[in-house]
Amino acid sequence: MAKKAKNFKKSKTGIYVSLATTAFGAVSVAKQAKMARNDNDVLRLIDSAVSAAAIVTGLAILYRELKRLGDDDVLLG
Fold first, then answer.
1. Are 32 and 43 in contact (CB under 8 A)?
2. What is the biggest distance separating any 2 CA atoms in the chain, rounded to whole angstroms?
3. Where do the TM regions start and end (predicted)?
């Protein structure tokens, strides 16, 4: 069971779950940015911009991993 859970992150399902949770974090960052703009809080706005950059980078890495898994599949080409 432990080995099965350990390899979950490297499976397609695990990557899809990671993509979804990372994208869900974008909602929180968007709310934070909106609140920072309304309050004219520059520091929170910078924090939300850095967080958004981290989310975009994370999604790009997960997409690359998903494509890498697809390269092994003969049917996906």
1. no
2. 53
3. 42-63
Query: What secondary structure letter does DSSP report for 41?
Result: -
Write the DSSP assignment of 31-63 as a string of letters.
HHHHHHHHHT-HHHHHHHHHHHHHHHHHHHHHH
The two tokens of residue 73 are 């599949």
Q: Please state, in angstroms and rounded to a whole number, the distance separating the CA atoms of residues 56 and 63.
A: 10
The whole-angstrom separation of Cα 62 and Cα 28 is 19
Spell 23-44 as b/e; 16+ CB within 10 A means b. eebeeebeebbeebeeeeeeee
Q: What is the pTM of this model?
A: 0.72
